Amino acid sequence: MPEDSVTHINFKALNQSAISQPLVRHIYTADPSAHVFNGKIYIYPSHDIDAGEAFDDLGSHFAMEDYHVISMESPTSPEVDNGLALHVNDVPWAERQMWAPDANEKDGKYYLFFPAKGYDGIFKIGVAISESPKGPFVPEKEAIKGSFSIDPAVFKDDDGSYYMYFGGIWGGQLQRWREGVYNVSQPESPTAHLPADDEPALCAKVAKMTDDLLAFTHEPKDVVIFDENGKPLLNGDNEKRFFEASWMHKYNGKYYFSYSTGDTHFICYAIGDNPYGPFTYAGKILEPVVGWTSHHSICEFQGKWYLFYHDSSLSEGVTHLRNIKVTEITYNEFGYIQPIFPYGITL
Ligand code: FUB
């Protein structure tokens, strides 16, 4: 059974040897989705709070209520907190748990995509719009039609098409949608409705967005990841299979789908030839961090590539009180990402 706090670590030593330090210290932040707009870095993180919810495997302790946009002139510049960007109380369809968001720009408007639970306890994904990358954002009255689960990541391809990648198992509820409708049976179980270990793993979802970025153009499709033998990853491949935290970036004409493996705590990736895949498993990007969750984004800034990620070092190991970080990533000559070891010591 995972725990909410890490108690066996010497945090002074860990923070001294860590490869990067928290970017934001005055509030807790997590799930950083980073983009470069108008030459500047904008980070769209979750805003972690301690709402007093008990820890469980459904993530009830992640009881976030709002979003703040963080901006930086460069990865090493001071961060600016641009204040309240969107609060759950202003979203008519959403009741609670404002989890990992993302944002993108089209024709001078900025779109914040976010998951939240509705009054029926079911996660959906909403959109809110602003004239500025900093917000504040004005939400649409309804969630995106046909959306479900969590962790939207919206990727703009070179031809101007936008695709949303999303989904998360356990508390993210993806396993309850296997038949196309939300399965209400065994409501407290995070693992009911998962495939058997020798069956193909559940996949993240992808859908192309409409021109106004407010809807899907088709039913979400599976983001299938094959192993090196051309077989889909299995549910039992816990160190490789998709759990949550989708991200897409393009490098040298290839599509890199990256994600968290959840209960094994890695950020992994798979490479494909088009936005829908299939993708072939390519390896680990980030070894486990302090705290249960791992979540990231990958972004190019002035010719270098950066991994934005989080850990729970600032709160000294409290899983639901996280802080965002950044580090540079590099690719080898074959296009594989050199894995990141976030601390000089073993956790
Ligand atoms: O922040 C709440 C949830 O934790 C996110 O949606 C997941 O990706 C995990 O980071």
Nutshell version of this structure?
With 347 residues, the protein is mostly beta strands. The protein is built from 1 helix and 21 strands.
For the sheet with most strands, the description reads: 5 strands, antiparallel
Helical coverage, percent range: under 10%
CATH superfamily: Glycosyl hydrolase domain, family 43
Distance between the termini: 17 Å
Mean pLDDT reading: 96
DSSP E strands, number: 21
CATH architecture: 5 Propeller
Q: Report the C-alpha radius of gyration, rounded.
A: 18 Å
CATH-assigned fold name:
Tachylectin-2, Chain A
Percent in strands: 35-45%
Question: How many domain units?
Answer: 1
Number of helices: 1
What ranges have pLDDT less than 50 throughout 5 or more consecutive residues? Answer: none
Structural class: mainly beta
List SSEs in N-to-C order: HEEEEEEEEEEEEEEEEEEEEE
List its salient traits.
single chain, 347 residues, mainly beta, Tachylectin-2, Chain A, five-stranded antiparallel β-sheet, five-stranded mixed β-sheet, 1 helix, 38% strand, globular, binds beta-L-arabinofuranose
